[in-house]
Every structure is written in C-alpha cells, then in structure tokens.
Design a protein that fits this description.
Structural class: alpha+beta
Oligomer: single chain
Number of domains: 3
CATH architecture of the largest domain: Roll
Strand content: 25-35%
CATH superfamily of the largest domain: Mannose-Binding Protein A, subunit A
Order of helices and strands: HEEHEHEEEEEEEEEH
Distance between the termini: 109 Å
Largest sheet: 4 strands, antiparallel
Number of strands: 12
Shape: elongated
CATH class of the largest domain: Alpha Beta
Length: 257
C-alpha cells in the first residue's frame, strides 16, 4: 500500500469516526471532547479557561464553540453531584482543594439554579453550607472540593483571582422525562428546537398522550357504525329467511292437504 492510498484510507476512517460522533451527539448518546456524558447531558470542566467573575463564566458557557445551548451547571440530583465530584473534576488529596463557579445565584434573597429551580427544592441542598450570611456581596454559588469533602457555598460574584467553572449542555431531553408521555406515548428529542415532544399512538393525543385523538375517535365511531350495520343487516336477513321458511312451510302443508 503506497503512501497516498494510506493517507486516503486514514482520512476516510477519520471522516467516518467524525460522522459517527456527530450522529451520536445528535441522538443524545455521546459528547464532543473534552466534554463528558452523564444522564442525557454533556459536561465541560473549564479548567484551562477560568473566569474572573460568575457573569463571565455564565457568558462563556453560552458562547462555547461547537456546543449549543450550554449553560452554567445546575445540579439537579445526588447522582449528578457525585458525577461532578468524582468523574468530572476528580477527588482531591492532601491539602489540595479547588472551587468552581456553578449555575447558582441569589436573586431577591432566594438561591436559584440557572434553570430557575430554588436550591432548597433540590436534593443537593444537603451539601449547602453558608458561613457568609452577613457578607452581602456573596451572591454567587460555587462548588468547593477538598480531601474527602465537598460543599456548595456562597462566594463573591467578581474576584481578582480566576476561577474554573462547569458548563452543562442537555442533549437528551427525554432521559429524565420519558415517563411524562404516559403508557401511550414515546418521548422524542427535537435538537433543532432545543426541546422534546411526546409522539402518541394513533388513538391518543395530548401533552402526555392522555386523551383520545379525533382521528382515533372517528375510527372507533366508524367501526361501531359498521358493526351495528352488520348486526342490523344480519337480523333483517334472518327475519326474511324466517318469513320465507314459514311461507314455504305453509304452502307445503296446504299442498299435502
């Protein structure tokens, strides 16, 4: 195999791998590196591009190249918290520690995630430690990790030192919502619309496929009408055959007499 043939083959293989990766990303089963996949979302630890403020970190997530609709991390479950702690950032040893901006901010004295869910209403509230209640400037949330421990805690929104952060992009919106379509529907991702929808069976409709569809009702009504018509036709034909049999019987009896 000559050099040009080898280059052509390798280029084709690389193209196929890239094509496959893009398809996997499109269908919510893979993330583009250096992101990591977990539970329907891609997570990017921005360690090499730290930010000087929470707002800058937030804007950087929104404008990530090759990644659409990413946002500063909102942690919604214990499993997700442990993934961030162990898999994405990694556990710390010795005196090493790190703190990262996350999508948590105090608005009107209420701590809200970037998806507008109050911190107190999420399972990870158990990791919340607020030792700075008297410091009014501490209005942004960080995840602080050290040896054998980690907490979510307030921090200044603007600092002199640069701080890393985590961006989250949901690519499979059906991952945690497949049951919302009920037993008569199937959740379908809509990547171009950054959304999802329920694809209902023929006889059903509604946001959760909980209602009879107009087409389904028409088919059912049509089937009922056909069955009624068939039964009525059968009864009429049966009556006619009975009358015919009675007529033949009476004629035969008269002939015998």
């Amino acid at each position: 195999m000559n050099y040009f043939t080898l280059v052509k083959k390798r280029s084709y293989e690389a193209f196929q791998l890239l094509k496959e990766a893009k398809e996997n990303v499109k269908h919510g089963i893979q993330c583009l590196p250096p992101s990591k996949y977990f539970a329907g979302s891609c997570y990017t630890y921005m360690k090499t591009l730290p930010a000087s403020s929470w707002e800058r970190a937030h804007n950087n997530c929104l404008s990530l190249p090759m990644i659409k609709d990413a946002n500063l991390l909102a942690i919604e479950s214990i499993d997700e918290y442990e993934f961030i702690e162990r898999e994405l950032i990694g556990l710390k040893s010795g005196s090493e520690s790190v703190s990262v901006y996350i999508g948590l901010r105090k608005i009107n004295n209420t701590w809200l995630w970037s998806n507008n869910i109050p911190l107190k209403e999420t399972p990870v509230y158990r990791f919340w430690v607020d030792n700075n209640r008297d410091i009014l400037a501490y209005d942004c949330g960080i995840l602080w990790l050290a040896r054998n421990t980690s907490v979510i805690t307030p921090a200044p929104c603007v600092e002199q030192a640069l701080r890393p952060y985590v961006c989250k992009q949901t690519i499979d919106r059906c991952y945690n919502h497949s049951s919302n379509c009920g037993k008569y529907g199937k959740c379908i991702n809509l990547p171009s619309m950054n959304s999802r929808k329920c694809q209902c069976r023929f006889f059903y409709t509604g946001d959760q496929c909980e209602k009879w569809s107009s087409h389904g009702l028409q088919v059912i009504i049509g089937c009922v009408i056909i069955v009624i018509a068939f039964i009525a036709s059968y009864i009429l034909n049966f009556d006619r055959s009975e009358d015919s049999w009675s007529f033949r019987k009476s004629t035969y009896e008269q002939y015998q007499m």
